What we know:
By secondary structure, the chain is mainly α. Helices cover 47% and strands 0% of the residues. α2 runs antiparallel to α4. The longest helix is centred in the middle third of the chain and has 36 residues, at 53-88.
Amino acid sequence: MRLDRWTSGDREAPEPLEGNIFATVAGLTAAWFVLFLVQLPFYGWYADRGHDWFIWTCLAGAGLGLIGLWYVRARETSIRRSAEAAGTGTTGTATTEAPPAADTPDAPTPGAPAPGASTGDAPAGDASAGDEPLPPGTR
């Protein structure tokens, strides 16, 4: 089978599926824990045959699932915070104030340096030249 048609980059990758991740992880964690509890009464039978690791694997799956629940909750909270910050500004409140008009004295003149900013005219090595490099094509 040729994989070139899948790996050549000609096809776009589909969007990731977004579902209720917390419910999925919680359900699978519960399944591991139930398997642990169901096998626990048969520990002696498993131990006699050298398969007692089955029981501990189920317990490890349940423990890792608890870590997964914590991770998914933290991830969803972080995504929600980022979305809120992007939609309402960094302060968490909506900004309805319009930017100053170009003809008001408070508005900076387009292309003029900001107050207190270096114009880049100072010789190289001069302490007053500032630490920021000039954008390309401005010399």
